[in-house]
Amino acid sequence: MNPSPADGGRLRGQLLVAGSIVAALLLVGAYLAAGGSSYTPEKTQDPCQPRPWRDPDGLQEIAQQFSLSALDGAACQLGVSREALAQALATPEARERFSERYGLDDEELAKAIRAGLLRAVDDAEEAGALSPLIGGPLRATIEEIPLDRAIELVNDASSLLDTFGGLLGPASSLLEEFLP
Amino acid sequence: MLADSSIVVLALPEIYRDLDTSVAGVTWVLISFNLVMALAAVPAALLARRVGPGRTAAVGLAIFAGAGLACGLADNLSTLILARCVQALGGAAAVTAALELLPATVGSERRAAAIWASAGATGAALGPAVGGILTELVSWQSIFFIQVPVALAAAVPILAVAKHEASTQVIEPELRRTGRPHMAANIALAMVSAAIAAALFLLVLLLIEGWRLTPIGAAIVVTVMPLAAILGSRLDSLVPSARARAAAGAILVSGGLAGLALLPRAEVALTVPPQVLVGIGLALVLSALTETALGGRAPQAIHGGWTISARHAGVVIGLLALTPIFTADIAQQRDDAIDAGTAVILDSKVSPLLKIDLAQKLGSRLDDEKGKVPTIGPAFEPLPEDAGERAEVVELRDELQEQLNRGATHAFSPSFGLAALIGLLALIPIGLARRIEL
């Protein structure tokens, strides 16, 4: 017996619905398989946790690690991420927005950055990149510096370390013994 | 007028920048128009029955044209939104009156319903291209200015009808009893419209604001959706069951939206398959539900008014529900992505001084973009002369841009996901409606 036109229409309707379900599931399955649900932004590290120095070979690299340690220390003191603080210190406008957002005045920011620089000295000593002989004078210098200079030092620690460059040389040569 | 939202949506990012407002604020350029259309459609249809469709349409078109001019001249968001409300009043009058005129013009109400449904699809097909081209080549104002001559040209043939109505008795004696609107079809229409509006609106914002395509580029990409709709409309004649077409359409729209919620990477090509599903689905579901809501019901203008009201109410609900979600998400994802990108810079092996320079330029870019997802390429210009260092910087730039793109893409995922759910929920009124078969 041949199907009636009504049966044919119903069958086409059922096929259309079934086809739609299959097409939708195929698309969703393919995108899930390609990693469509796996995105999570890379988490930034807790700045209060120690961050091992890597390959401090030469003044530039030591200065870089010093800057990063200083950022970690200051960010830990302020309770923000190292990345947020780095963005804030990039321009005066960004610093102003950051200070407003976290309710900080210049003195509080300077205090946190000094704390960061002091942690950088500690980390440098611990990594063997800085002789303990210069740790003391360096700390004394850091305790006295104003905010703008402190920010400059975070951005370009080499200028600070250059001042003590004569003493840094022997420390640098010891690095290979202390670091893997 | 049926294409209004699909034209205007392409201009929203430009309006957002030019009028210095927020994403949530600029959404009201769409919401206000659709809200007034939703509220005014049925009263406008009643008015057309009372004073005559010709006169109603002529006045409506004049109001639409005048308000369109005001939209183009608006120099702040409040004026623009107010003008859009007035424009929608004119639009509601013109569209519902045109629907009243259509059966007499084409010979039957059934044919009028089919033409009505296809007019909506054609408008949606041309809308993004028109909006994108005008916005990029001329200005966002031009999308409103161009509506003025178009509306006035449409008014010319209608004036003859209006004059005839003025010289004869108003059609009151011909008024037939107005039946109740088809609730299930109209509720389903509202839900599906919410999902479709979200698809178009969110995709355009993702392409222009998230992936930084130009308006024309975004228009070309989103035109996939209406092109697929033309393909979908061919299935209408093959499947007589309106319920099956409506259900299949809702499933395809939801599947496409789910695909957009799960985009694996920030690549334009990956938006094509989901758009094809949404396009085919919208053609099936909108035509099935509109024909069902209008089929066998008289007068056409009143029931057409209900479908217009349902569709525009759906757009309003979709935008109101989804805008707060994705604006919050995009801000959070942008911050997370920028933090992750900054970590990439800080942990990179480029020289410390270059690193500081990059961080400062990146900071300046963020300032320039005022909180939006930035294009970070300029922050890395000029590239270092040293070949090794240049390669490192290029790698860094690409990695950072990838972080931002993925963050922007992911920011839209919850909204696309919610829109998919709304589309899927439309299956409830479709399934419950016993009388949905034509």
Question: Explain this structure to me?
Answer:
- The complex is a heterodimer of chains A (180) and B (438).
- Chain A has helices spanning 5-33, 59-78, 82-88, 92-102, 106-126, 132-144, 147-155, 157-163, 165-173, 175-178.
- With 180 residues, chain A is mainly α.
- Chain A has two domains: 1-38; 59-178.
- The longest helix of chain A has 29 residues, at 5-33.
- The radius of gyration of chain A is 29 Å and the shape is elongated.
- Mean pLDDT of chain A is 76; it is low at 164-180.
- In chain B, 80% of the residues lie in helices and 0% in strands.
- Chain B has 16 helices and no strands.
- The relative contact order of chain B is 0.14.
- Mean pLDDT of chain B is 82; it is low at 171-175.
- The chains are: A mainly alpha (180), B mainly alpha (438).
- Chains A and B meet through α1, α2 and α3 of A and α11, α12, α13, α14 and α15 of B.
From the structure above, extract its key features.
heterodimer; A: 180 residues; mainly alpha; 2 domains; 10 helices; elongated; disordered C terminus; B: 438 residues; Growth Hormone, Chain: A; 16 helices; 0% strand
Bin the strand percentage of chain A.
under 5%
Radius of gyration of chain B: 24 Å
Instruction: Give the chain pair forming the largest contact, with residue counts.
Output: A-B, 48 and 56 residues
**Amount of helix of chain A:** over 70%
Write the layout of secondary structure elements.
The complex is a heterodimer of chains A (180) and B (438).
Chain A: H1 5-33, H2 59-78, H3 82-88, H4 92-102, H5 106-126, H6 132-144, H7 147-155, H8 157-163, H9 165-173, H10 175-178
Helix pairs in contact in A: 2-3, 2-5, 2-8, 5-6, 5-7, 7-8
Chain B: H1 4-18, H2 23-51, H3 53-73, H4 77-106, H5 109-137, H6 142-145, H7 147-167, H8 183-210, H9 215-222, H10 224-233, H11 242-261, H12 272-294, H13 300-347, H14 352-369, H15 387-425, H16 427-432
Helix pairs in contact in B: 1-2, 1-5, 1-8, 2-3, 2-4, 2-13, 3-4, 3-7, 4-5, 4-13, 5-9, 5-10, 5-12, 8-9, 8-11, 8-12, 8-13, 8-15, 10-12, 11-12, 11-15, 13-15
